[in-house]
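Z., the sequence and structure:
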Amino acid sequence: MDLLSERHSRRPQDLRTAGPELLVLDTSVVSLLFREGAAESRLARRIRGRRVCISFQTLEEVLFGARKARWGRRRVNALHRHLRQYRVIWCGAELVGVSARLRAREERAGRRLATADAWIAATALLLDCPLVTADSDLRRVDGLQILSV
């Protein structure tokens, strides 16, 4: 299955009723899970049994990192296999609105939030579910549920 295909994606409204078991994984977490490569890692055990998804922004960042580092075919194929386990939340009008409001609120409060971080945080806010992250900057976002790694 192509990572960019519609079958691999979900619209936010499709996941909103998923309940408390839904998690959004930040880029740092997806990368960590890929690097650890073991289903028995502490982090993997912590999220086991939960439904996980990623923002389109996380997908872009991970694929960009692999291209920038000029990974070989074997490693890129392994990354694609890893990424197939996640549902991708694509950008739509609702997510754009949440992200814009979030960035404006943070800027008014004197805090800069990078655009990429805003997309990922907005995804979790829109879905009303926790964001699993190692990014300490996101802990200060009001209303964002964080599961730190």
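The mean pLDDT is 88. The longest helix spans residues 93-108.

Let me know what you think.
H.
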